[in-house]
Every structure is written in C-alpha cells, then in structure tokens.
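[step 3/7] inverse_fold.run input=structure_tokens len=806
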C-alpha cells in the first residue's frame, strides 16, 4: 500500500488559515496544523515516526478501518503529548526497545486503534499521560500488551489485548489506570500485573483468560481493585499477591485454574466479597506467612479438580470466612503452624471427601454458627498446641464428627453431631479438649469415644440413639485426678446418667469387613459378602482378539502380547522341566485420560486368568480416596481391604501419584504405599497391581518411591488418539447404536477432531464418545420436528450435527 496524502481542515481564525490544506506527509501536516484542526489521513502506509504535540484530531477515513498504517522501520511509530483525538489507525512497530504507541502527556482520546506490533510494549502510558482509550486492540507477541508506568494513568474502555509476549497489562512506578470491560488473553506472562509502592490498578467488568502465568499478579506494595471480573484458563495461579500487596475482589469469578486459584504471601491483604472460586487444581485460597490476611464474605469455593485443601492457612497467616460456602472439595480448611488462625462465621462446609476442618502444628481455628455436612471428618485437631473453638455448630452426615489427638486442646460448645457413621467425638493419643453442652445423635458407633487416658472434659453433654453406646472411656476411669476424662452432668438416652466405664478395647477393629475406624457395633455380625457364581475364564486367544479390536494402541498391544508370550512360554518350559525366567507381572500405565488404560487392565487380568496365572482375573479399580483414611491406622485397613477384594485378580490404582503429593509431609498417602509394597511382597502370586496416571506425574511418583518402582516390571505408555482413530471410535459407536454417518460426516469429524484443542481437559476416547452423544442429541432435535421421518432420517448423522468447537 503506497503512502497517501493528509487533508488538514483548519479551524483557526486568521485569514491565512481559513482554508484546507493537503500534505504529502504526516509530519508536514502535523507541523502545519493548529489546535483544534482535523487531520484526515488518506489510505496508505506511512513510514513515519509521528509526534502529536497539539490538541488536534488525527483520524483515518470513515468506513475504512485498517486502511491507514503507521509503520516506521524503527523507533516509536506514534507518540502523543497533548490532549488530542486519535482514531481509526493501524499502528505497527518493529523496535524491541520501544513502544508502538506512547502517551507521555495530556488527556488524549484514543479510539478504534489497532496495534499490531513486535515491540517492547503495544500501548505505553507514562508520566503525565492520562488518556481515554476506547475500543483499541493490541497484538504484541514480542512484549507487553499495555503498560502504564511512572505515575501515568488513564481509562481503558472495551479494549482487548489479543496477544502479548509478556504481561497483558503491566502497571508499575506509581501508575494508576482504570480498566472497564476489557479483555486480556493469550499472554505469555501474567494477564494483569501491578507492582511497586503507590501503583494501583482498578478493573471493572474485565476478563482475563488463556494466559501462561498468573491471571492477576499484585506485588511490592501495589494495590488493585477488581469488580465483576472473570479470571480463568491460566497455566499458573489465578490470582497472586506477594510482598505487602493489597487486593479487593468484589463479585468476581475465578475458575478453571490448574494451580492455586488465589495465593497470598508476605504480608499481603485480600478482601473478597461475593466472589466464586471453582475448578482449581491446588488450593482455592492459599494464605502464607505472618501478617498475611484474607477476608472472604459471602464467597463460594467449590468443585476442586485436585487433591488439596480448598482453603490453606499456614506459617502464621490469618483467614476470615464470613457467610461463605465451601463444597465439593477433597478437604475444606487446613490451618497449620503456630500463629496461623482461621475464623469462620455462619458458613457451610459440605460434600468434603476427607476433612472439613484440620488444625495442626500449633494453629488455631474458631468456628461460630457453622454447618459441616457430608464429610469424612468434621473437625480434626491434630497435635500439641493446636486448638480453637467450635461454637454453636452443626456437624451432619460425617464419618466422625470431631477428632482430637496428640495433645490438641480445643473448646467445643453447644455443638450438635448428627448421624455420624462412626463416633460423634473421638479423642485418642493424649488429646484433650473441653466439650460443653454438646449433643451426639444417631451415631453408628459411640457418641463420645475417649481412649488412651486422654484428659478430656465433658460437661452437660447428651447422646441419643448411638449404636454402640453413648460414652466409651477405654483405659481410664471417669473421676477427676485419675489421668482420664472429667465428666460432669452428662446424660444418654440409654439411662439417666453416664454408664460405668467399659473395659478397654482396641480403637481399631481389624476384621476383614470393618465398616470404619471403630468397627462394627457389639452383637452385630457383619453381613457375609454375596458370592457370585464362578465363571470360566475366556480363552486367551479370545481376549487377545478383543484387545486387537480396540482402536489404536498399537504399541500397547505389542507390549501386552510380548508380556503374555513370556508368561506362556515360561509355563511351557516349567512343564518341560526347564527353568522359566521370572516375569514380574505388575505394570505401570502412563498416559492421558480416555486412552483405554482401564479397559486394557481388565483384559490383562482376563488373559492372566486364562493362562492360569491368576485365579479369577477380575478388576478392582481404586484411587486415593479408596485407600487413604482420615484416622490414625485406618489407611492401612483401607489398603488391606482393597487388596483383599482384588485377590485372584488385578488391583488397578488410578492416579496413583496422588498417594505421594509433592508436599507430602502431613499426608497419609505414604502409609498406603508402605502397606501396598508389603502386601505385594507377602502375596506376590495372589494379586497383580497396575498403577496408572499422567506420564510426568507417574515418573515423579516412581522416582520418589524406589520401593514401589522396584515392584514393577515395565511401564506401558498409552499415547493420545489421532483424529483418524477418534473417527473410528465414533464409527464404532454409530454402528453399535444403529446409526450411520451420512456422506461428508466422516470428513467433518476428521476436521473437527483435528481442530479440537488437546489441552489437559481432552479426554481421547471419552471425547470421541461424547462427540457421538452430542451428535445424537442434535440429530434428535432436528428429526423431532419432522412429521413422518423416514428410516434414513432416523439413522443418518450429518456433519451439521457436530457440536461447536469449545
């Protein structure tokens, strides 16, 4: 595109300026223009470095967006130092040391400008610059998208950073911009970042997503205020605060975060109001270090995708949850380390797979008027110096309501534990605790179970309908000064007062079918397992044929056949009186979800049964939640029970790396691993164990557990399916359900699977099946409108039935 001319419309009052002028360069036009003049730029490419120092209007022709390119070979393409209006320009820069558009002073208005550049910064505001930037876009894969520096400010409305090689928006050096309804995505650094004393960022109605780093990062005494903003699909933390940072989140939504949704450290302060946090891989809210504080009011944290506590408070930090909801998470609240504190008021903690509230290492937690529902453990005060208060709380549908161990000393007042599967309150290993006016109803075990001479105080407590009894005090009496519990004015529906102390008995029942920590109720015989009729194993040739029929997995099939051949030849050599090579049958399966690991494990078990290596060949699939218990000693029991269920077959442990998290210092997963290794050694011929998970995570798991690694003979890697293999799965699904692919549909499916993002959420075979199901639903919506559909109408799936790409 050649350079055009510039039409200058003069508005001055001098006679010699009462005319318009046309100039061959932008520099000449700017030199001739006076305050208030309008410079209309003809379409073309201008290799000039423009400096606007008067309050003029600089614009491209109406109705021709992108037709005017400001594209010098180096330097800053466009510098604004006055309260000018600049609009409808396409700015391109090539200087890695300079911005593409620089505002240094004044209050200019920048409208509908597209910056496509490979510069240090797309748009940079500094010093006295206070622009209003509307509907501008920045595409700068080499540097920062928008930078506001050195005391600069301004308002950015409906702007978009479509790509950035570093941060999407960077604020530092005391700058104070405001973003309204902006979008920042595909940045190689943080989406929004503010750093340095007196720096402040305000964002309203903005969206940050698809960034390779933190969505929002505030550090070094900077402040930020986000209202009605969305942060999602990052590769790092959703929101990060560090070193005296201050952030307010109001009515925000943070989701689809693989790491911590919100992470605070080093005396940072966070205030969250009416904000939701969901689908996070580590902690929903993570707070560290003395002086660091997070206050959450009317917030919701839920739907964890990892195996970490939703709220983590450690190293002397403080968290306040007021009228909040935490649900559908592995653990709700963990408070660790002396000086750490959590205050929870009028909040709901529910659908918690493990522990709702865990307090350890000298930390403190205070819960007032809270509701804990459907958790394995309601509250666990773990060790010496750990304590706090539960006041007027309800714990409903837990395995165990409150656990106190190893010298912990909480105060529990006016609380109710309803329908626990095991004990309402369990105190052991020298735990203390004071329970005042508390009630346990409908327990599957004891109401209050105090063992090991724990010096617990019970006053005005009551139990009702407890299967094993209201109170059990093992290895101690009830009178003061005996070293055991102090019990005053406590009652049970079994009698008017407290029953005499029972004889000591083990805290953990180790019978094969124990329902939990405290074992079955006295006088109750556990039901015998229902036995199913034994079935003859299918011939190995038949099972191998089913394996061969699976789509793809060629390398996996070769590995399984090679292993099967080794075992078969070994058996034949033994029958011939020859030595047979020792073959370890335990396997490691690595790969992404949906690649057929469980299916192959099931077939492998059948093959071994057909060869007489295993008695039954059945598959028992478990994960961390099935093996790791919440009570001291219960993990070993769960692991033993899972191993027993798999006796004669295959024990398949999915996501086995979760048994050994990177921060495993306070985790019971190691106990499960140790128990499993011993069982594999003691019963080496009874069970085949297969551990499975993502490739990188399984490599780490095996590297940190040499005892586990030595038990496995080989690793089989399941690769992701290609587009053609996914198409074959859809074709199989269609044939199985009596559908047909119309002409053009296979090509449409190939194109669809080729373009489908292959990120962490990609499900391989599961994705193919979901695609088929979506096509069937769209087909049904279409055919339901036909008055008399033909057989072709009822069976043909077209390319138009494909769902939209995510």
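[step 3/7] decode complete -> sequence:
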């Amino acid at each position: 595109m050649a350079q055009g001319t510039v039409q200058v419309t003069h508005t001055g009052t001098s006679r010699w300026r009462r005319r318009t002028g046309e100039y061959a360069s932008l520099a000449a036009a700017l030199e001739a223009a006076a305050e208030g003049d309008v410079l209309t730029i003809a379409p073309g490419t201008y290799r000039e470095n423009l400096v606007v120092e008067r309050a003029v209007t600089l614009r491209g022709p109406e109705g021709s967006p992108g037709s005017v390119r400001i594209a010098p070979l180096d330097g800053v393409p466009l510098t604004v130092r006055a309260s000018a209006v600049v609009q409808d320009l396409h700015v391109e820069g090539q200087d890695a040391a300079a911005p593409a558009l620089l505002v240094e002073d004044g209050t200019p208005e920048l409208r509908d400008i597209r910056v496509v550049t490979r510069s240090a910064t797309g748009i940079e505001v500094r010093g006295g610059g206070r622009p209003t930037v509307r509907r501008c876009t920045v595409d700068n894969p080499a540097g920062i998208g928008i930078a506001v520096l050195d005391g600069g400010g301004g308002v950015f409305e409906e702007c978009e950073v479509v790509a950035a090689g570093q941060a999407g928006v960077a604020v530092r050096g005391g700058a104070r911009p405001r973003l309204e309804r902006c979008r920042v995505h595909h940045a190689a650094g943080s989406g929004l970042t503010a750093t340095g004393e007196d720096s402040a960022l305000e964002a309203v109605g903005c969206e940050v997503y698809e960034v390779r780093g933190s969505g929002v990062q505030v550090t070094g005494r900077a402040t930020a205020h986000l209202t009605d903003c969305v942060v999602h699909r990052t590769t790092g933390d959703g929101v990060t605060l560090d070193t005296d940072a201050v952030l307010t989140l109001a009515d925000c939504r943070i989701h689809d975060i693989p790491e911590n949704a919100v992470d605070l450290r080093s005396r940072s302060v966070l205030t969250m109001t009416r904000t939701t946090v969901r689908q996070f891989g580590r902690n929903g809210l993570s707070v560290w270090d003395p002086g660091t504080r997070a206050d959450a009011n009317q917030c919701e944290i839920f739907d964890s995708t990892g195996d970490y506590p939703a709220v983590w408070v450690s190293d002397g930090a403080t968290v306040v949850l007021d009228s909040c909801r935490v649900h559908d998470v592995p653990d709700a609240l963990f408070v660790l380390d002396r000086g750490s504190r959590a205050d929870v008021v009028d909040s709901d903690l529910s659908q918690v797979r493990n522990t709702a509230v865990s307090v350890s290492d000298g930390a403190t937690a205070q819960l007032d008027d809270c509701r804990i529902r459907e958790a394995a453990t309601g509250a666990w005060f773990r060790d010496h110096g750990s304590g706090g208060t539960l006041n007027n709380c309800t714990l409903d549908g837990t395995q165990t309501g409150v656990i106190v161990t190893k010298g912990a000393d909480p105060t529990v007042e006016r609380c109710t534990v309803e329908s626990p599967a095991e004990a309402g309150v369990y105190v052991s290993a020298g735990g203390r605790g004071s329970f005042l006016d508390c009630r346990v109803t409908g327990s599957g075990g004891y109401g209050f179970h105090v063992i090991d001479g724990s010096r617990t105080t019970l006053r005005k407590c009551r139990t009702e309908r407890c299967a094993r009894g209201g109170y059990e005090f093992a290895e101690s009496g009830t009178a003061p000064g005996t070293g055991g519990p102090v019990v005053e004015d406590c009652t049970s529906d079994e009698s008017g007062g407290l029953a005499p102390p029972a004889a000591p008995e083990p805290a953990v029942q180790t019978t094969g079918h124990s329902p939990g920590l405290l074992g079955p109720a006295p006088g109750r015989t556990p039901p015998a397992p229902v036995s199913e009729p034994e079935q003859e194993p299918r011939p190995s040739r038949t099972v191998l044929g089913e394996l061969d029929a699976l789509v793809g997995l060629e390398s996996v099939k070769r590995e399984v056949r090679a292993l099967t051949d080794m075992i078969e030849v070994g058996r034949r050599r033994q029958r011939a009186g020859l030595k047979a090579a020792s073959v370890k049958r335990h396997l490691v399966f690595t790969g992404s979800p949906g690649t057929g690991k469980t299916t192959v494990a099931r077939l492998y078990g059948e093959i071994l049964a057909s060869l007489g290596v295993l008695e039954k060949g059945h598959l028992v699939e478990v994960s961390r939640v099935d093996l790791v218990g919440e009570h001291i000693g219960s993990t070993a029991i769960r692991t033993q029970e899972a191993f027993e269920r798999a006796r004669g077959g295959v024990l398949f442990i999915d996501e086995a790396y979760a048994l050994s998290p990177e921060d495993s210092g306070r985790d019971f997963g190691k106990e499960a691993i140790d128990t499993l290794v011993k069982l594999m050694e003691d019963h080496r011929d009874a069970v085949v164990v297969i551990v499975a998970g993502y490739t990188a995570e399984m490599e780490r798991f095996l590297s940190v557990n040499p005892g586990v690694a030595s038990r496995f003979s080989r690793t089989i890697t399941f690769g992701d399916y290609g587009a053609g293999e996914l198409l074959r799965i859809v074709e199989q699904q269609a044939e199985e359900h009596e559908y047909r692919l119309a002409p053009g549909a296979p090509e449409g499916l190939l194109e669809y699977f080729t373009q489908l993002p292959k990120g962490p959420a990609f499900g391989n075979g599961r994705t193919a099946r979901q695609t088929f199901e979506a096509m069937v639903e769209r087909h049904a919506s279409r055919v339901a409108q036909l008055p008399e559909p033909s057989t072709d109408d009822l069976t043909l799936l077209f390319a138009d039935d494909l769902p939209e790409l995510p």
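[step 4/7] annotate
Residues 554-575 form the longest helix (22 residues).
The radius of gyration is 34 Å.
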